[in-house]
Design brief:
2 domains, mainly alpha, 310 residues, MetI-like fold
Length: 310
C-alpha cells in the first residue's frame, strides 16, 4: 500500500510540474503582456521599462527558472494589473465559486445517482426512457445555452429570479441549476450503465438463486460494485469545482474564480492565470488521488493486489 501511495504521489508531483511548465510556455507565446496592459499610445521607452521591471526581456529559460524557484518558495507572483499578490486575488474569489459549485455538486449527486439507479432497476419502462431522454438533453445542451434560457424564462419573462450578480441567495439559484443539470445528466447515464452491468453479473444470479431477496441483493452486491465507475465521475466533478464554473460565472456575472480567469487571460495577467491553473491542477490531482484510495475501499480485489505487490 505504501508503494502504491508513493507511486501516486510521485506521479501527481510530475503532473503538477508539467502543468506549470505548459502554462508558462503557452502564456509566454500567446502574446506580449506589455502591449496589452500598457496604453496603445505609450512610448516605446515606457513599454521597454515595463518589460524590464517584470523580467519579460530576459530569455525564456531564465524566466522559467525564476518562476519555478519562486513557486518552490510559495511565491506565485503578483498581478501585472495592480501589483497585488496573485494568491490573494484568487483567494478572494474562491468563496464565491464554492458558493455555486458546492450546491451544484449536491444537486448532481442528489439527482443524477438516484435517477440512474431507478432507471436501471426499471429497465425499458416508461420511467427509464424518460430519465434517459432528460439525461441526453441535459448532457447535450451547452451550459451557456441553458443559462441564457433560464434567464429568459425565470428572470425576463416571469421576473421571479434575478438575472445576475451576487447580492442575495436568490442570485445563486439559476447558476446552481445551470451547473448542476449537466452533471446530473452525466451521472444518471453512467450510474444506469454501471447498474445494468452489475445486475447481469453471475454473482447477482447466484445470490437470487440462494433465496436472497431482490432488494437485499441490490443493496449488498449491486450498489457497491456499481459505485466503482461512478466514483470516477464524481471525483472528476469534485476536481473541477473551481474550473467548471468559467462559462456559468461569465453568463451570470458571478464574481468567482472562473470569471477572474477569463479577465486575466484577456489581459495577459500571467501570474493570476498561472496561479488559477496551478490551483485547478492541484485540486484535480488531489481528487484523483482520493478516488484511487476509494477504489481500494470499494473493491476488495484491489486491496488484495496491493498486499501481494508489497
Amino acid at each position: 500500500m505504501l508503494r502504491f501511495l508513493a507511486f501516486r504521489l510521485s506521479r501527481s508531483l510530475l503532473t503538477l510540474v508539467l502543468v506549470v511548465t505548459f502554462a508558462f510556455v503557452v502564456l509566454r507565446l500567446s502574446g506580449d503582456p506589455a502591449l496589452i496592459i500598457m496604453s496603445p499610445d505609450a512610448p516605446p521607452e515606457a513599454v521597454a521599462a515595463f518589460r524590464r521591471s517584470w523580467g519579460l526581456d530576459d530569455p525564456l529559460w531564465m524566466q522559467y527558472l525564476r518562476y519555478f524557484t519562486a513557486i518552490l518558495h510559495g511565491d506565485l507572483g503578483n498581478s501585472m494589473r495592480d501589483g497585488r499578490s496573485a494568491i490573494a486575488l484568487v483567494g478572494e474569489r474562491i468563496p464565491a465559486t464554492l458558493a455555486l459549485t458546492l450546491p451544484a455538486l449536491a444537486l448532481k449527486l442528489g439527482l443524477g445517482i438516484p435517477a440512474g439507479i431507478y432507471a436501471a432497476l426499471h429497465r425499458n419502462s416508461f420511467a427509464d426512457r424518460a430519465v434517459m431522454l432528460l439525461a441526453v438533453a441535459g448532457f447535450t445542451v451547452p451550459s451557456f445555452v441553458l443559462g441564457l434560457l433560464l434567464v429568459l424564462v425565470f428572470a425576463v419573462q416571469l421576473g421571479w429570479l434575478p438575472s445576475g450578480g451576487q447580492d442575495t441567495w436568490m442570485h445563486a439559484i439559476l447558476p446552481v441549476i445551470t451547473l448542476g443539470m449537466g452533471g446530473a445528466a452525466v451521472l444518471a447515464r453512467f450510474t444506469r450503465s454501471a447498474m445494468l452491468e452489475v445486475l447481469g453479473q453471475p454473482y447477482m444470479r447466484t445470490a437470487l438463486a440462494k433465496g436472497v431477496p431482490w432488494h437485499v441483493a441490490v443493496r449488498r452486491h449491486a450498489l457497491p460494485n456499481a459505485a466503482i465507475p461512478t466514483v470516477t465521475i464524481v471525483g472528476f466533478m469534485v476536481g473541477s469545482l473551481l474550473a467548471g464554473a468559467v462559462v456559468v460565472e461569465s453568463v451570470f456575472s458571478w464574481p468567482g474564480v472562473g470569471r477572474l480567469l477569463v479577465v486575466a487571460v484577456a489581459n495577459r495577467d500571467l501570474a493570476v492565470v498561472q496561479c488559477i491553473l496551478l490551483l485547478v491542477a492541484a485540486t484535480m490531482i488531489t481528487a484523483n488521488l482520493v478516488v484511487d484510495l476509494l477504489y481500494g475501499v470499494l473493491d476488495p480485489r484491489l486491496r488484495m493486489g496491493a498486499r501481494e505487490a508489497a
